[in-house]
Amino acid sequence: MTHGVLLLDGGLGQELIRRSPSPAHHHWSLQVMLEEPDLVAEVHRDFCDAGANIACLNTYAITRTRLARGQNLPPIGELLDRARELGKQGAATSQNADAAMIASLPPLVASYRPDTQLPLEQAINEYRELIALQKETVDGFLAETIPSISEAEAVLTAAEQEGVRIVLGLTVSDEDGRQLRSGELLTDALAAIERFNLLAVVINCSKPEVIAEALAILSESPFPFGAFANGFTSIDALEPGGVVDVLEARKDLGPEQYAAFAESWLEAGASVIGGCCEVGPDHIRALSTLLKSRGHEQLAWSDLAA
User: CA 211, CA 262: separation in Å to the nearest integer?
Assistant: First the structure.
């Protein structure tokens, strides 16, 4: 028996790196948004045309701590507004003008590195600010690449205090899908967040090979669940404040291969699928084709709250 599935988009940042002639740096995705805004809108358009039912906005690099590393950047609210405008522009020119505008809530300091996270109260306050600045103008929030229980609790507490429900994306070890990047057990993470009123829990920005192991655990939780993997050979070379162009893309994870992994996620009961870094529009198109071939109804973001 088939079930409804929400199809997310893919890796916005890596797609921008492929398309822009500008050299990457730690505020590169924001610079592209300011200097080459049409490029950002075009990537959103292409993901929506491929079948994505959301546009995950270019807000991953917009946190107080990350912005403090740069100079002469616009105010945080202005950057968030610009990201939303470009998401809307891209969707409006696609075949899926109704795609939901979803703000990304990233790790506040650095990806994959739980040792860099902020003290709990500071993290809650910074996440609250991001949510408060956007909750009246976006359709929802996706916390992405969360590497530890404490950062998960921080973003979920902030969402609860701001009166919104979010999708939580946890990232797991590339060697063991039963563990977060922090080394904490996924089962312990689920126990810690069980008190929150989530829309769904997903595994993201992890190797597709370990996701099935993680989904076997998520399937025992009370939450809707899913996954969107990355296409890196390894994330070990990325240091705090670094740029993901130092990471190498896999050559064995084309659209068909990625869809084969996603099919196993669907068989495990996943109701949210998509792509992360190095997963482009062609991969999302392959997932859309897969959902149609299996007879899955494609859900809207609003269906998660139903």
Answer: 10
List, in order, residues 6 or more apart from 201 with CB less than 8 Å away.
Answer: 167, 168, 169, 170, 190, 193, 218, 221, 223, 224, 225
Q: How far is Cα 29 from Cα 113, in angstroms, rounded to an integer?
A: 20
- Give pLDDT tens digits for 251-285: 899 999 999 999 999 999 999 999 999 999 999 99
What is the tens place of the pLDDT at every residue in 224-233? 999 999 987 7
128 closest CA partner among 104, 152, 159: 159
Strands 167-170 and 140-146: what pairing? Answer: parallel
DSSP state of 279: -
CA distance 53 to 300: 6
CB neighbours (10 Å) of residue 99?
27
Q: Return the bridge partners of 227, or none.
A: 203, 273
Contact status, residue 199 vs residue 304, Cβ threshold 8 Å:
yes
Which residues are CB-contacts of 256 (< 8 A; sequence separation ≥ 6)?
286
CATH number, domain 5-305: 3.20.20.330
Please report the beta strands in 90-245, taking only residues with DSSP state E, as ranges in sequence order.
100-105, 140-146, 167-170, 200-204, 225-229
